[in-house]
Amino acid sequence: MGFTSIEASGSSFELRRARRDDVDALVALIAADALRAAEFGFDAEARAGYARAFETIDADASQLLVALEGPGGAIVGTMQLTFIPGLSRGGATRMQIEAVRVDEELRGLGLGGAMIEWAVDYARERGARLVQLTSDARRTEAHRFYERLGFEASHVGFKQYL
Predict the structure, then answer these.
(1) Which pTM value belongs to this model?
(2) Is 70 exceeded by the pLDDT of residue 135?
(3) Rounded CA separation 159/117 (Å)
(4) DSSP labels for 33-79?
């Protein structure tokens, strides 16, 4: 499956594999999130960390970092897809969707929904039998968004920060 164009409000947006030169824009999109802003730095050390992370993601066939490019070339959306083989569910592969972001000024145009629909189709094409994602418990609007797209709240997640 190739990447796709998304039409919204009379403009065309290109969904594509992220490139190294997109990293600053992708990090800025993720950092613009009020719940995550404090986690991000933009000094030389932080930038080097983002570059290393991008190189690792980009080199891994089980990972896909997606960029949504708007008219004029600006990066206006992103998500990361991870394919996870497992022994549960009869040896099924699942796809994890993470870090879904759309530029705040473009929300409500259907871009996020189109991105997720494309990701689900991509998962099917790659043989995944389950698509999963997590969302911060405080993101009630995001929960409604994912439920409208056919996702159901089925598990409780736990984390341990190291």
Answers:
(1) 0.91
(2) yes
(3) 27
(4) STTTGGG---SHHHHHHHHHHHHHHHH-TTEEEEEEE-GGG-EEEEE
